[in-house]
Amino acid sequence: MLVSILTDEIHQDPQVFLPFLKERGIKFAEIRMVRGRRYPDLDHRDKADLPGRLEEAGLKISGLSPGLFKGPAGPRGRKMEKALEGLFPRALDGAGAFRCRRILVFAPDRDPGLPPGPPFPGWLLENFLVAADLARERGLTLFLENEPGSWADTGPASARLLEVLGHPSLRANWDPANALFAGEKRPWKEGFAALAPFVGHVHVKDALPPGAGPGAPRFTPLGEGAMDWPAQLKALKERRYEGFLTLETHCEPLSRTTPESLERLERMLAALSPAGGGG
To answer: Which residues contact 86 (CB under 8 A, 6 or more apart)?
Structure first.
């Protein structure tokens, strides 16, 4: 498994996140926000310079996160259609400069009055299939991230949607801490078991779900929440997952929580190896 970090979970300024990655020997990074702008709509300076600076630093891009399809879909999915006409082609166009073939997407919000699918709305399936076909034409793969409140809020819900879609260019970005927020009790067990055949990317963070104590729900440094990451990493290893583990700290202050979480993730991975006694 390959450790990666969302760069804005270090800092949004390349002058800060590039030295951090170099000092810690991290070779992979995911791009989301840079200097207050979300990919692909970065500042013109970063559009021109950042891909080259990343390459000079010996970094490969593990994924690009433009926030596609996240949030309300609008009547009959009109907002999703608008994204397909605007943000989506810009995200595809920008991937080449970063030499990245992996784009993260979300499912739109599900009306709380509607049951989880299937059946799924026709507009949802049609728009996802259009997006996946366009990605395949460019040699790209879309990774659907589970997000609370969406049509793909949990591991089982994401699996059902991906199974119905059945498209080779549409896989899963498994975020088990998000699944905790969506109500799963043990996402590293039941949720992952349901989604495992589709998982091609993983986000790593920790959380205290609703009702888990003072201040909950909230994200925490890795190892301080309700996620059993050693169990999740073991399950990934048993499935022979060899993809990215992208750290997404999601709690302040990043100057402390990201280095701490990275060190804890590396220790957990070391414990999985024969030398670490994990078998």
So the answer is: none
Domains observed in the chain: 2-276 (3.20.20.150)
Mean pLDDT across 209-228: 89
pLDDT tens digits, 240-270: 999 999 999 999 999 999 999 999 999 999 9
Specify the length of the chain in residues.
279
Query: What pLDDT, on the 0 to 100 scale, is given for residue 275?
Result: 59
Convert the pLDDT of each residue in 67-115 to its tens digit.
999 999 989 899 999 999 999 999 999 999 999 999 999 999 999 888 8
- Beta-bridge mates of residue 218: 208
| Interstrand relation of 206-208 and 218-220 (parallel, antiparallel or unpaired) | antiparallel
Which tokens is 37 given?
């702008």
pLDDT above 90 as % of the chain: 91
- Distance (Å, rounded) from C-alpha 128 to C-alpha 161? 10
Contact 173, 248 (CB under 8 A): no
DSSP H or E segment with residue 104 = strand 102-106
Query: Cα separation of 7 and 187, whole Å?
Result: 25
Q: Taking Cα atoms as reference points, which of 174, 190, 181 lies closest to residue 244?
A: 174
Q: How many Å is the maximal CA-CA distance in the chain?
A: 55
**Three-state secondary structure call for residue 97:** coil
- Per-residue tokens: 249: 């700290």
Q: What is the pLDDT of residue 214?
A: 79
Tokens representing residue 238 in the block:
């048993």
